[in-house]
Amino acid sequence: MDKLKHPQKNNFDHLPDDIVLLIFNKLWEAKWLCRCSMVSKRFSSLVPHINNVSVKPARYISTRSKQKEVTSSIFEYLVGLKDLMYVHIEEYFFCEVDWKCSWKPLLKWKFNFNTNVRSFTFLMVSCLLRVELPLAQYEEQDGEEDEEEEEDGEEIQNDINIRQYEERYRVNMAFRCFYDACTKLNIVLDRIGKHQMLRSITISDIKNQEKIVVSGYQIAELRNLERAKLSMPKVDRGLFKCCHVPSLHLPKSKCMMVRPTLVYIRCVNPSCDNEGDDVIDDDMLAGSFEDDEGGVYNEAVKEILAKHKNKMSTTRITKEVDEVAAAAQNQ
Amino acid sequence: MASSIENNNEKLTLKSSDGEEFLVEKHVALQSTLLQNMLDSDCSSADVIPLPKIDARTLALVLGYCKKHADASSSKQGELNSFDSEFLKDMDMGALFNLVLAANFMEIKGLLDIAAQKIADTIKDKPHQEVREIFHVENDYTPEEEAAVREENRWAFEGFP
Fold first, then answer.
1. I want to staple A174 with a disulfide (CB 3.0 to 4.6 A). Which of A42, A121, A263, B144 is the partner?
2. Which positions are tagged coiled coil (chain B) (predicted)?
């Protein structure tokens, strides 16, 4: 009879609840927490008190309706975790089928949250070449390239057309990412924004290239806002800046970026008269990717600001631009 | 000269639950917030400090960890990280849990963190039945209750590998 019971001592019996919670807090992923609840009644009673959780996108789900069902179950689960402090939601921001090209371009974007300025930085690159040669040699080569281009008029025209299409496509994509991110943040805030312990919400893609971080006092501010006021597409004033550069040398990262596009979107709070100025925007832009690993993108933004500021266009967000973006979103 | 070295390397004696005594250099002992507070509050270092909750085998491990971390300079973070992962590798669950308790009692945050992480990593990627076996946790659910909890958390078993 004794053998049927566990002959060895339960390892967890000696651990006080706070230590078990410390261990559970290192599990992070919601599915492991869920499965943990299955182990025993004590586990199941402790799991609802965890502080950290991350949610990865559900894979291996065939139908869209099933996927929605799972997603809503996950959020239902998060609603029950009242002591949550740090939430990290990983998502596919674009399904593979959304890409018109067979390869995934290098892309990074980030949401900067603040009480009255909310901005969005988007950087997309055709390709990234690792270079070991001194910078001067590349600049020379660059010059030669320009001369060649001047020789063949027809090819230039083709090239310009393709580039213009690509540039438009990228701007649309930036807006689409922007709206996509806003929508996701709204959903998350709607469900768990009221959790009193909440300190930080991060929404990113699975590779952490694309990120929204909302933390500290920002959450407190957001909690006081009505959800409807948050929805970005309704913001009637704002501006976006856009810059296409043929190539960008990044000496610190020893890289060359081919055809980077930088898009910066800033919403102007309708209740605030001060629209901010260029200097603030530059500061915001320069700091966009600062706290991330992979200094390539960070360096690229700074290089563009330093050397290609003249190529940057600034547009007030008007209805038309909004519609363009909406169209991109609905494609 | 000799006396100044002695002063810098002041030692104290720790006594495990099973009566074994360990002579520890002060800077090593300072890795533990508990011992640090004791020393700050002027407990004479000549006294033997009893640690009634920690057995000799665990205490030896704890002190090994403290010594490594006290001696290494901050520039050797990489070396410390590989020491940490090597330190817990192949450790049996009983020893690991004792280590967690000791680190918690002696307030050694770094050790508590890596040991808790190790346990968390063991729980990950395993079905709950296996988790029960590894940690000797008794299943106190009735079959009906278990089915109900499973139903509640159904999503965690479906869309995820």
1. A263
2. none
**Residue predicted with more confidence, A66 or A304:** A304
Q: Please give the residue that has the higher pLDDT: either A198 or B61.
A: B61
Q: What is the mean pLDDT of the segment spanning B120-130?
A: 89
Cβ proximity of A292 and A298 under 8 Å: yes
Question: Would strands A255-258 and A247-250 be described as parallel, antiparallel, or unpaired?
Answer: antiparallel
Question: Which chain B residues touch A58 with a CB distance below 8 Å?
Answer: 155, 158-160
**ipTM of the predicted structure?**
0.88
Give yes or no for residue A140 having a pLDDT over 50. no
Of A6, A19, A32, the CB nearest to B123: A32
Q: Other CB atoms closer than 10 Å to residue A49's CB: what's the count?
A: 16
- By Cβ distance, the residue of A32, A38, A74 closest to B149 is A38
Q: Please list the helix, strand and coil fractions of chain B in percent, rounded to the nearest 5, in that order.
A: 65, 10, 30
Is B94 part of the contact surface with chain A (CB cutoff 8 Å)? Answer: yes
Residue A86 neighbours by CB under 8 Å, 6+ apart: A51, A52, A53, A199, A200, A202
* pTM (two decimals): 0.74
